[in-house]
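Appendix B. One record, verbatim.
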Amino acid sequence: MSEEQAGEHRSWLERLGHFLAGEPEDREDLLVFLRDAQKRQLLDPEALAMIEGVIQFSELRVRDIMIPRAQMVVVPQDAELETIFPLVMESAHSRYPVIGEDRAEVVGILLVKDLLAQGLKNKALQVRDIMRAAQFVPESKRLNVLLKEFRSTRSHMAIVVDEYGAAAGLVTIEDVLEQIVGEIEDEHDFGEEEFIFRKSQHEFTLKALTPIEEFNEYFDAELADDEFDTIGGLIVHQMGHLPRRGERVDIGRFRFIVIRADDRRVHLLKLIVAEAGETLLASDE
């Protein structure tokens, strides 16, 4: 055994001894210990990602993961049900905030199952006639507390309010769970040969194997494809290292956020797209 190998071996044994003795005492030491275990194939990358998500989970607050008010897909309370169907078909969500005079005033939640049940019978009904009560939570609420509330109330969506009581955004139980298990792909998200899935007007999920040529054609973009063939290759080059889940990089009007990656390559990305002429904000996630 070389001196370098012996040093690494002692370092590992020292950390193991600290762990068994009730240490490491801080989270960073624990993460180093777990990442070392993954390198030695005692944990697979997916298990490590989930453990890291659990460790960080209780320190996150609603404001860290909420969908900002400007990006919410909403329906007016006085809209007739028949006018809502095109929006629902395009956005493909199961729940929608119902607003009053503007987006800051959320007055309820529209469930698509209620829309289908009632709208097909009486299309002249208004959204206010079938909407349900909304659950409101402050921006500062911790995610572990919110998850308990979601489970106890059997709710799937909450409206996030600021200190003045105005709607600041929304959060779903899926958003919360994804902080632990990573992006939850619906079974209809991707076809077998598809690379890009549209979740809303500005948010997409895409495979890292998406050809840059196809990306450019889809988004009318001009990302360089002379050195790399795929978006994943471009992202790794831009970051300068193989990224972990949650890392992000901005390229022009595109924000790429790593959803799934292992110690060999990136698998899945979240994409936030700014309108032409607009800039990405720190909260645009």
